[in-house]
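Anyone up for a design puzzle?
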């Protein structure tokens, strides 16, 4: 009867129970490259910059709207330094559809306000405005780094990345000591800190002899010396506080990776490496690294922007294909993460329909909140197509939902791509502590994500 159960019952399996030692070595090697990417890509601008470097090393060249493309051509479109489109023109007609893998490279963080600098009690601080869905208390009393760009009045650009090197200073958000925390600890968890409490501690040394704003002046003197900026230059800056430090393995077996920004660079990286792995495709391939997903995919660098359809339309025109037929026959993997089942919070999950670490890449038929609100909900036909591809290429995969039905939920870029008349389903990696300053994934799962995107491209 056990053989009959194996044949008739469904149950996803642990990667390590399925693969051989040769593939375990590939898993370990792949994790090294992924962690290198994470070190250098803590913001969407840095992720795009790294993506372009990787693409150029593979022979990709810049694309401009209206440019003629040729079969086998490898191109990238850099959208304002914050979103990236990579594509390889296939050998067959584009009317057979484009294979699209769409990830996002923005992550929850603390952005500096436009007028951020102030002094209080002889300490200097930056005011911040949090970006994306965070638990505010998690961002206090941990070392933070400052990343971003400043554009001065004359248009010159200053790149900032401080807090990552061993001899760099870090920054910090003060918390209240438990000895005085009686009132604070009686508040609800979500009310213990407000957005206005998330102020970045940046200095305490005064300029000698100054009677007011002496610490603020000292900070501005240092910033002027380091970067040639004045306080007014913060008005045209994009600076973000992110967790300081490099990715680390978790556990005695080093099977897990702890890092900032797995959501969603853990899908962006394999989407790119899978594209590079198939340089002579039959279908035209596209990998997207989008911005602004954490705040609804808005703006001219988010997935709602028409630049996506503009590129597809221009590619169709260049190859003599009917744009509407191209869209109709295209297929997309919305490359985004899922919430891994956590036994410490089991009451929030429905275990049978949850994703699990080390069980491979996660196919998520629908996202949304409660009654599937905000989800595209992939068709049964498309799910069948994707699962047959994965089984053909020995991809270890599983299905998952984002917790119990009434517990909450979330969305991805899938809905905005599906609206273009493109078959779309979410596919990504299971994450523990999603949206925390440090998240956790299994290195076996990120490798299977690469293998899945590669199979899809074939």
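Challenge accepted. My sequence:
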């Amino acid at each position: 009867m056990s053989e009959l159960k194996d044949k008739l019952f469904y149950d996803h399996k642990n990667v390590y129970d399925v693969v051989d030692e040769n593939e375990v070595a590939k898993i370990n090697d792949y994790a090294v490259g992924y962690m290198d990417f994470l070190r250098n890509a803590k913001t969407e601008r840095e992720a795009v910059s790294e993506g372009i470097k990787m693409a150029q090393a593979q022979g990709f060249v810049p694309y401009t709207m209206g440019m003629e493309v040729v079969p086998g051509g490898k191109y990238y479109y850099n959208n304002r330094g914050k979103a990236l489109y990579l594509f390889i023109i296939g050998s067959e007609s584009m009317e057979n559809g484009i294979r699209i893998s769409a990830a996002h490279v923005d992550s929850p963080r603390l952005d500096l306000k436009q007028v951020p600098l102030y002094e209080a009690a002889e300490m200097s601080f930056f005011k911040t405005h949090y970006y994306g869905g965070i638990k505010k208390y998690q961002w206090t009393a941990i070392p933070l780094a400052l990343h971003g760009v400043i554009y001065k009045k004359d248009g010159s650009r200053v790149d900032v990345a401080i807090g990552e090197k061993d001899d760099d200073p870090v920054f910090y958000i003060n918390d209240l000591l438990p000895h005085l925390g009686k009132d604070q600890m009686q508040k609800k968890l979500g009310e213990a800190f407000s957005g206005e409490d998330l102020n970045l501690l940046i200095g305490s040394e005064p300029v000698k002899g100054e009677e007011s704003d002496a610490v603020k002046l000292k900070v501005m003197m240092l910033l002027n010396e380091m970067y040639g900026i004045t306080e007014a230059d913060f008005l045209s800056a994009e600076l973000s506080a992110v967790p300081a430090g490099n990715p680390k393995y978790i556990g005695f077996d080093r099977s897990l990776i702890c890092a900032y920004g797995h959501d969603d660079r853990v899908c962006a990286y394999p989407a790119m490496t899978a594209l590079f792995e198939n340089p002579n495709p039959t279908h035209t391939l596209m990998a997207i690294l989008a911005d602004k997903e954490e705040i609804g995919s808005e703006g001219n660098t988010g997935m709602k922007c028409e630049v996506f359809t503009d590129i597809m339309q221009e590619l169709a025109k260049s190859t003599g294909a009917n744009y509407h037929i191209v869209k109709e026959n295209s297929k997309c993997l919305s490359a985004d993460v899922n919430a891994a089942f956590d036994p410490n919070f089991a009451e929030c999950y429905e275990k049978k329909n949850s994703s699990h670490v080390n069980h491979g890449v996660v196919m998520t038929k629908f996202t949304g909140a409660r009654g599937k609100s905000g989800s595209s909900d992939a068709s049964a036909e498309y799910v069948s197509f994707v699962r047959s591809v994965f089984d053909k290429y020995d991809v270890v995969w599983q299905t998952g939902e984002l917790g119990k039905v009434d517990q909450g939920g979330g969305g991805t870029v899938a809905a905005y791509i599906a609206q273009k008349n493109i078959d779309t389903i979410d596919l990504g990696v299971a994450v523990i502590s999603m949206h925390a300053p440090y998240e956790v994934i299994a290195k076996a799962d990120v490798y299977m994500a690469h293998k899945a995107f590669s199979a899809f491209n074939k």
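A detail worth pointing out: The radius of gyration is 23 Å.
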